[in-house]
Amino acid sequence: MSGHHAARGRRATERKGDLRERAILDTCEALLAEKGYEAMTVGDLAQGAGITRGALYFYFGSKQEVVTALVARTVEHLWERSLTTARSEDPRRAVAAAMRRTVELWNAHGLVMRTAIDLSLTVPEIGALWDRTADLFITAITAVLERAGVPPGEEPDQASSMGRALCWMIERSFYHASQESPERLSRASATCEHIWLTSAGLTS
Amino acid sequence: MSGHHAARGRRATERKGDLRERAILDTCEALLAEKGYEAMTVGDLAQGAGITRGALYFYFGSKQEVVTALVARTVEHLWERSLTTARSEDPRRAVAAAMRRTVELWNAHGLVMRTAIDLSLTVPEIGALWDRTADLFITAITAVLERAGVPPGEEPDQASSMGRALCWMIERSFYHASQESPERLSRASATCEHIWLTSAGLTS
DNA sequence: CCGGAAAGTCTACACAGTGTCGAGTTTTCT
DNA sequence: AGAAAACTCGACACTGTGTAGACTTTCCGG
């Protein structure tokens, strides 16, 4: 609860601390890939960023806060780019475009996204971040379903519920596939796309 | 790696230790519900089972081992009952039966199943256990798809891939829904059933 | 029913990682 | 220049883990 960088808003000149902060986050991402969340200690983090543990605690209150910030950074970057998805006329094209976009996202940020999913239970902050992200996807999927003629509503055979289920299918399929290889990811994507289309009544 | 109860096979008379072991596992399940995996310490576990930490380490090497044993116990119980699923003639009935069965499972053991999913990444033992469970489900779903006329094979529009994707959809939907309420769980179930049927070409 | 082995239990200890404190140094702004 | 803010560090207290070794209880063959 020490008010350090919460008070530091956008700034003209770049503080030394902004550098450090970025270094910490980058180190965190690297260590996450290298040894995983559990095994990564605050000491490792500090060492990787070239400072001592004490100094790190000036920037972040805990390991969880560091990871939360990393997830926030990634997820923000993700929100910006995903708003242009829904604007295609043909639902079939919209689905294909959305899936392509999502594959790119997972190829680029799979590690952080998997971490976010893993920690959403134990770290409420990350849970909230990820829920919001999922909602974005659910809304997008639901919109496409409705455009394809699925009636709106919360009943099992209506768009909203189906959108949610399909989102979870994609999340989980990609979670597993992105752990394996980009190749598996694109196969998983094709499968999900097919089920999505079928569910929307767009059987070729 | 201390050879204590690994050597103790099935036994006519029930050792005192078997009692303890069960007490520990029961306590573990209770604590998991009460405070979650992270917050639960080995001390809590021991206290709940009415012994000291030292005594607990006689039975299990670590907190992870306790939880692994709990997951194993639950999942075994689960394997036994799920083998009778595939024997219905009408695919529509088979799907309905499978979903009903799965809802029961999640209502009864949702907590342990969610824990298993959460830990499958960090605890390889649990990962293996859960993978095997998932494979069971995937195989069952795939079988029903094929019986309904979906061609077998690994291509995106063929049974095997679709079975996997549908399994993940169900897992994730149930994971979230079972956290909320039995009511949400049954709604999620209905949605998943609808998508499954549609994917199998069994549109009413 | 006795005596040794196996099973079970406990207290004490060593260790690793966390988070905090207060005293210093550097940077920034005026 | 000089005060305030930003930043850094080493040392400390605390919590939880896993291990060691001594002790008690239970089992079971002779």
Automatic annotation (TrEMBL), chains A, B:
Keywords: DNA-binding. GO terms for molecular function: DNA-binding transcription factor activity; transcription cis-regulatory region binding. Gene3D superfamilies: Homeodomain-like (1.10.10.60), Tetracycline Repressor, domain 2 (1.10.357.10). Residues 18-78 form the HTH tetR-type domain. Residues 41-60 bind DNA. It comes from the Bacteria. PANTHER family: HTH-TYPE TRANSCRIPTIONAL REGULATOR ETHR (PTHR30055:SF184), HTH-TYPE TRANSCRIPTIONAL REGULATOR RUTR (PTHR30055). This is TetR family transcriptional regulator. It comes from Streptomyces griseoaurantiacus M045. The lineage of its organism: Bacteria, Bacillati, Actinomycetota, Actinomycetes, Kitasatosporales.
